[in-house]
């Protein structure tokens, strides 16, 4: 069973089904901080950093501590059962080391690291997090090659431009939704599957969107609310 993550299955479906998520019942807007380690030298690869962010967000939700009776449950439950907002920030040096002291999961992939922290009210962020910059996450495109066989795969929309921070939030949404609808089991962080991120050619993306509209059960979609960078309703990524 996917534990607390299973709540997402009530809000998200496969194929063309759109999410219907009501406003937070208690009026508290929550978000998961996702901290991206971006040192001056060497810079991380763009794709490994997004893969680390996608895997870390999923790992927090599958973690036994996030399930009923766990020490993280009260923080994770109302967020997963509402709108799964994420805010990506960058950190380096002492600031990166400082966020390791906060509850969450750090994932490293091919020299890139990201830490997903427990979600909480957006107006009550720990100072060690609030001082981190949201902007300045740009990295050069890379060529990661084919995704590993059998890995959960997130595909970014090639038609829209997104900063690394925005993309990191979107791929984190995608892995969570995929895990929910596939019923992935509760797992320790070390046992959470590494998630692959790729950007398909525009023609392939368009074909996949057509499949989604036709009800393809293997695909899940992230549709953005449109608060930053993209228009409301934009499909920012697909996962399978």
Tell me about this structure.
The protein has 240 residues and is of the alpha+beta class. The chain contains 6 helices and 9 strands, in the order βααβαβββαβαβαββ. It has helices at 46-62, 73-80, 93-99, 127-130, 164-182, 202-213; strands at residues 30-37, 86-91, 104-109, 112-117, 120-121, 153-156, 196-198, 220-223, 235-239. Strands 1, 2, 3, 4 and 5 form a 5-stranded mixed sheet that branches. The chain has a 4-stranded mixed sheet with strand order 7-6-9-8, with helices on both faces. A hairpin with a 2-residue loop joins β3 and β4 (112-117). The two termini are 19 Å apart.
What gross morphology would you assign? globular
SSE order, one letter for each helix or strand: EHHEHEEEHEHEHEE
In DSSP terms (H or I, runs of 4 or more residues), the helix count works out at 6
Please report the distance between the alpha carbons of the first and last residues: 19 Å
- The counted number of beta strands is 9
Poorly predicted regions:
14-19
Strand content: 15-25%
**Overall average residue pLDDT:** 91
The largest pleated sheet is described as: 5 strands, mixed
GO molecular function: hydrolase activity
Organism: Pseudonocardia kongjuensis
InterPro entries: Pep_tRNA_hydro_II_dom_sf
Protein name: Aminoacyl-tRNA hydrolase
